[in-house]
């Protein structure tokens, strides 16, 4: 489902995807914790780059970026 945000002059400014969610900030979490948080946000983990017993320091897409529900996020650990 899509919704249009319309400028006061009637011109569309952008299209908002209502089926998107912000990527959660899982910095400092274990891979297990981060995976659970992603699943709670209707996202999945595609890959873990780095050792799985280390903590997440960044995600791709980045925290706060809107992602389509059901899409995948990469976790990077160190």
Description:
The protein is mainly beta and 78 residues long. 13% of the residues lie in helices and 44% in strands. It contains 1 helix and 7 strands. The protein has a 3-stranded mixed beta sheet, covered by helices on one side. The protein has a two-stranded antiparallel sheet with strand order 1-2. It is elongated. The model has no long low-confidence stretch (mean pLDDT 88).
List its traits.
78 residues, mainly beta, 3-stranded mixed β-sheet, two-stranded antiparallel sheet, 1 helix, 7 strands, 13% helix, 44% strand
Structure summary:
The protein is mostly beta strands.
Please give the oligomerization state of what you see: single chain
Distance between termini?
A: 38 Å
- pLDDT averaged residue by residue: 88
Q: Characterize the biggest β-sheet.
A: 3 strands, mixed
Rg result: 15 Å
The number of helices is 1
How do the strands and helices of this protein lay out in sequence?
Elements: E1 2-6, E2 12-17, E3 20-22, H1 31-40, E4 44-49, E5 56-60, E6 66-68, E7 72-77
Parallel strand pairs: 4-7
Antiparallel strand pairs: 1-2, 3-6, 5-7
